[in-house]
Specification:
The complex is a heterodimer of chains A (313) and B (286). Chain A is mainly α and 313 residues long. Chain A has 15 helices and no strands. Chain B has a single domain (2-282), classed as MetI-like (MetI-like fold). Classes of the chains: A mainly alpha (313), B mainly alpha (286). Chains A and B meet through helix 1, helix 6, helix 7, helix 13 and helix 14 of A and helix 4, helix 5, helix 9, helix 10 and helix 11 of B.
Amino acid sequence: MNLWSYVIRRLLYTIPIILGVCLIIFAIFNLSGYDPAQTLLGKHATAKQIMEVRKELGLEKPLVQQYFDIVKSAFTLDFGRSWATKQNILDMIKEGAVPSLTVTIPAFLISTITAILISILVAFNRGKFIDKYLVVKFVGMMSIPSLAYILFFQWFFAYKLGWFEISGYEHGFPDFIPYTILPVIIMVVLSIGPDVRYFRTVILDDIYQDYVRTARAKGLSETVVLLKHVLKNSLIPIITYVVIQIPFLILGALLIESFFSIPGLGGITVKAVFDNDFPVIKAMTVLFAISYIVFTLITDILYTVVDPRVRLK
Amino acid sequence: MENESKSLWAHAWDSLKKDKTAVFSMTIIGIYVLLAILTVTGVIASDWSKEVGASYLPPSLENPFGTDIFGRSVLLKTLKGVEMAIAIGCVTAIISTVIGVLFGLTAGYFGGKVDEVIVWFYTSQASIPGIMLLFAIMFVLGKGTSTLFIALGITSWIPLCRLVRGEVMRHKEREYVQAAAALGAGNRRRMLKHILPNIFHIVIIQFSLRFQMAIKSEVILSYLGLGVQGAPSWGTMIDDSKLELSRGVWWQLGAATFAMFFLVLALNLLGDALRDALDPKLKGKA
């Protein structure tokens, strides 16, 4: 099978997935018996008011129509307006993307590179003290809830020591830097544990393969075996793991943004949960899902370009 | 009979007993379960809601973890929180295991259209990031402890389902399943009595993973005001401390994080030890 027919088949496969995602979102928001009109108007609304709001929200339309409205919004990204701010949700998303990226991109780069370096170090010394020590250390770090890290770091480094801004944000480079350093540090601390654990397993999986034994039998040194043979093969799962995180970069870090008052998409989402802002929650769910699907698609296609074996399946 | 061959489970148990980390983590988990039983039955921490002193007393001999805003003992709240953590972990892990095993077995065993529909469904659900799905479900169903269990349960079954489906596909053509079929075992018997026990190690490993993830997720939901209501939980305690830290009140955050750390760490380590003991593929490897 050639590359193009694979790409087309893979593209077609996303259609039922998008329809499925919309079906789940539809089931949660439109079929569960939850009435957004009630949330919007409060307990003392009259039946007539509720009717009017339901009409405005399109809840009086036939169910099939309501379902296709969600599907349509997945393609047009037209989500209507927020209840809390009355803003157009698409504009909110556009505004929120940049502040999110100023936190997540540096954090993502630092943590991924550090994690890969540590995993190589650990793989060199597998079974030795440093390997066991680091593994236990990272498992320990992962056993502390993220909220506790955020609270403690903000209190200790920003409030007590006064090294960083406690919260807030300023638009434009380089004005945002003082506000993003601490959030970036926290994100790196939070993601380095899971990253190292995953990369280590991937590298160790490869170390026991036959081709590695062959390489060793040829008399190659451990350094050459690890860096030239093993790492090359481990790169594929590592790249997949890394690429799939990209949509989450745009969407930001939910709790961190909310906590440090960074006006990114994560912060917007958390605020919507606080405000019971129904259209924004729904829009964010659709947006998160669609970007996830798009990036999975890109990863899969990249995969087949890099590794021709995938196409044969 | 000295040379009687041991089952996978007996082997696993032997290697777990030799593994110091596994023994350590099982002991810790045992202590937590015991504490949960003692608080449920009211032997300890039944008067957690009682005022024991002034508001925000720092740790002292009398109140080892100090007091909270209402002058309640943080130690007793933390102990009472064990009950909630174990409940959240257990119930959530059971819900997600039942769904995951059921769908995974069905999809893997029957294949064809049934498999396609189940795979389509979980691929769709997996496309919605877990945390968003959790928000959405909690938002629609409303606050409450039982909602919390349901929401955490139905958002966490997919990894197990995928693994079970894959393993069942490998197992269903094996000789022992064919032998069972030849002896007249129906589909249900073949699935539940023959295949399931052979893939059960995956279920156990995933159970310990779900357990600790549920406990950690409760903290995030508490921050959003969607957590446990009416009873102390570590999540609400950590969330409360966001207003306390600036006044120098660190003991509530400290106590809840400390309590959670050891339980989650033990579950993490046990999960790893179980994988080493139960996954034959990894046997003999460093």
